[in-house]
Amino acid sequence: MKFLHTADWHLGRIFYGVHLTEDQAFVLDQMLAVIKDTKPDAVIVSGDIYDRSVPPPEAVNLLDDVVSEIVLGLKIPMIIIAGNHDGPERLGFASRLLEGQRLHIFGSVESSIKPVAIEDKHGPVYIYAIPYAEPALVREKLEDDTAHDPASALKVLINHIADKNPQGKRSILMAHAFVFGGEESESERPLSIGGTSTVESSIFDGFDYVALGHLHRPQRAGKDTIIYPGSLMKYSFSESPHTKSVTLVEMDAEGHCSIERIPLKAPRDARVIKGYLKDILKGPTEGENPEDYIMVELLDTSAILDVMGQLREVYPNVLHVERPYFEITGRVAALDHRKMDDAELFASFFSQVTGEELTEAQKSTFTSVVDEIRHKEREG
After folding, report:
1. Beta partners for residue 175, in sequence order
2. What are the φ/ψ torsions at residue 214 (nearest 5 degrees)?
3. Cβ–Cβ contacts within 10 Å for residue 161, how many?
4. How far apart are the first and last CA of the chain?
5. 267 near 23, Cβ under 8 Å?
6. Rounded-to-10 torsion of CA 33, 34, 36, 37
7. CATH number of residue 296's parent domain
8. What pLDDT shows up at residue 326?
9. What angle do CA 5, 136, 182 make, to 5 degrees?
10. Residue 276 sits in which domain range?
11. Does pLDDT of 238 surpass 50?
12. What CATH number is associated with residue 82?
């Protein structure tokens, strides 16, 4: 059996005020070309289809175009799960009707997790699709009080599957999770600000391939067959060294997998340029695209008039400028708020306003309130 594994499309993403839908359509066209060329038996998408729970219309239209081409045009089954950015009920609308068209969407966790069976000449391969689920929902659906954070909730769901997974049959697990040891990026929203969100790779024992989503760098997670394909595009400047790709997998009769990463290239790269203004204004070197999305790290130590205006004369898509000299020479080093989670941001704000540190009880209250807000947001 041959299948294409992808994840973290984040359709509708806004990058420093720039709407990326046109760029995303360009990259998805490349993915469609890969699918037409390799002719997989299935396409699986491991969550974060949209960038937010209520996506803009152009993102919905783009998803409709891509899914229609794969399922109706190429007659290839698709299996899709919701990630922590997706609104599960919206994504899963009409999923029972769509099953008849080879489109299998798993938006919300259900009490019974039934596999999608894809047949090849060696028999069925069972694909178990676990959408990202709030711990409270897992406790309710599976009546298991041990699901108190994202990690334990995923363990409950996997244990539920393991009890029913036919022994000796090939199987794939789809999940949206953070496996311990994985490399993060700035553009990933934390799965939780309270409790444990990381899971050990050992919880996936028994599956021939684990198709993960959430982390944006393509990587293995502990074992050769536990795979993050990475995000569709670069969604933060911390991802500038990444090579984005989709993962093509061939599984033999025994469940052994050969894995190939097929690169994807956006029309505009996300790059970081570091140097002095006079050198940067000389323009791109040979092979560099001046239309790329650029973050500039200026080494100049003197005041400069209209830095952004000067830079955009050469690089029209300069989106952010940093001046590290001024951050490290002040009385207090500037905090990089992009690298702080919600709890850290609130603790910093509280300290600046009140002059006091948050107590453990206040931290717990904040965590509970934010988790409840996120739960309501995802459920729509």
Report:
1. 212
2. 130, -55
3. 19
4. 37
5. yes
6. 120
7. 3.30.160
8. 75
9. 40
10. 270-328
11. yes
12. 3.60.21.10
